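tool=predict chain=A
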Amino acid sequence: MSHAARVLVADDDDKIRTLLLDTLSALGYKTIGAKDGEEALAILERQKPDVVISDIKMPKLNGLSLLRNIKNKNPKIPVLIITGYDLTYTRDQALESGADGFLVKPFRIGRIEELMQSVLGIKGHSDEERPYKLKKILIVEDDEILRIMLTETLSSLDYFPIGVEDGQIALSQLKTQDFDLVISDIRMPKIDGMSLLKNIKDTVPQLPVVLITGFPSSYPAQRALQEGADGYLAKPFRIEKMDELLRDLLYERERASVQS
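tool=predict ok
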């Protein structure tokens, strides 16, 4: 089964549900959200997702009841259970009821992808497929949730990411460590992405810099590339697209270093 799989996410916490939906969408999955078990059941009556991810503690119909209902009617649909309650009894109940995977909040996004690949029968990346394994990437993003998401996702893709919250800290990191690539948001406090880009290109011109923004109309790709950016991504972007861009830039950098 390909990454076009449809995933139903049931969680009453708007922030967690949105994070999961955005992350799974970025990973290439089709997503549907439900704020409780009853809404999830109503969706299941209309369509058949390939995977269900459900919180345990929800109003109206909790995750365990939703899990049992799904396994009674559609036992072949994999169900992943997420909870903030690390209780052996609860975990055992979920697994005995047919859960295909179990995660405790706060969970690693890379772990979510591993479980998705496992239940869908998708093979992970081999070393041969990941020629740029453990390349060190500096992520500069003031949005903590997005920074964590990018860090966890790049880790799951076998890069070695380090995340910082603003351009000032990024410049300090660049003085003390060698990086293979920088990914930076444009709109940030203290030192914004465009200023960080200029500083990097003045001091380490061969270091690739990818700019990301949620405001493409204010910071269009043409402007970013004219300012010296090696790549540009407008949010929301697919993880596959970012990974492809990173591999292309790392390949070009490696080829340039061999030729010099």
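The first strand starts at residue 6 and ends at 10. The longest helix spans residues 239-259.
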